[in-house]
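Um, can you check?
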Amino acid sequence: MTRVFVPRDAAAIALGANAVAAALTPHATVVRTGSRGMFWLEPMIEVETPTGRIAYGPIAAADVPGLLVAGALTGGAHPLRLGAPNAIPFLARQTRLTFSRCGVVDPLSLNDYRATGGLKGLARARDIGPEATIEAVLKSGLRGRGGAGFPTGIKWKTVADAIGARKYVVCNADEGDSGTFADRMLMEGDPFHLIEGIAIAMFAVGATQGYVYTRSEYPHAIATFDAALRTAREAGILYPGFDIEQRVGAGAYVCGEETSLLESLEGRRGQVRAKPPLPAHRGLFGQPTVVNNVITLATVPVILADGPDAYQALGMGRSRGTKPIQLAGNIRFAGLFEAGFGVTLGELVNDIGGGTLSGRPVRAVQVGGPLGAYFPPALFDTKFDYEAFAAKDGLIGHGGIVVFDDTVDMARQARFAMEFCSAESCGKCTPCRIGSVRGKETVDKILAGINVDANLELLRDLCHTMKFGSLCALGGFIPYPVLSAMDYFPEDFRAPIRQAAE
């Protein structure tokens, strides 16, 4: 029977992929894959033909009879026919390294993984040894993809050189930023890639135990990764005496911060630890620990398999390689776009993303999750690069982009930032715990038109205190969205006065 590939990604399932798969099962061999990351086309099916795959989408179960009549199982013409998947403009413009298999392979088939180059990176690491493996990661220029952008090779070397009775590798899969879904997509669509990356890290630094800390809101990712782990153990991918275990968080945003995550892994309340000591010296259970996020670790097999020079050749400045960028919010083409650093924000939003779904003008874009700054169209020439964003008081973070049209009220977005911080603060430090509550109260006074000038000055001063006095990035970065809203959209903070005058 003809093979038809139907995504099992959570986004596709939410849009009816399971019903589509059930409708196709009597007529074809259905292979469940991850998603290609083009969510406006989901569920998108791909039919295997002698000349390559042909995509159709978005498909509903009710469309299946018509597709069969039109000869879709042989690539026949139909209004929903998209042609070769790799020729779809959104996909054709990408440089897919980390996500090269997502939407292509059965995520739970180790044979599929091997057939598409899987485990070559791990084999290469074992051939060249731990020191050379770390050197390859250093040479590649890979920086942490979780937000901080710290050089991955330096972190690994620090752990490798540290003295400890035991060493650990911890994968941060507590993806909680607004508009982000890259970790989930990879864990659901290519879990062996992450397992291979963790195995390489463990080998390189001398760790015998790895942990993956996954957010509880990802049931499909949790189940898929656990199933892949069982297969990996049975296949002997890990050295004897080495193991990886998945742990599920309880929904606290602050546990995305590495020391809070470690506290939670140890069975305590997720609260930020003071630094130093760094986790690389005293991390999980007081031992040297590598803490990297999903995309960082899943990038490592590519670097080892293809060589660090090939990875270093992509990107710009100190930002090397590719970055999976997630387009969300009020945007026409929402999805995951992997490309080398250097693409501009305007290209991502207007050209690749197609502008707003509402058809109204773009007014603001938030990059980097709830802690990221709001950029107006005047800053759309900013290149996607760690230093370029930092120079404009912004941050890339986990690569989430959330788009807003001209109906957004930026003063209320500033209030939301403070409200979010007050709800998610671990409570350990005063600037974050108290400052966020007072910040929300101050914005409320501004919205009510009470002493606007004085309260705007107070809000700015409060942001300064939180930025430099908070123990971690939650309180320290919340000023980014608040101050950017005040600086680029000042008229919204005086709207109540204007309305009262009218």
Notes: Residues 319-386+394-405 form a domain with the Ubiquitin-like (UB roll) fold (CATH 3.10.20.600). The mean pLDDT is 94. The radius of gyration is 23 Å.
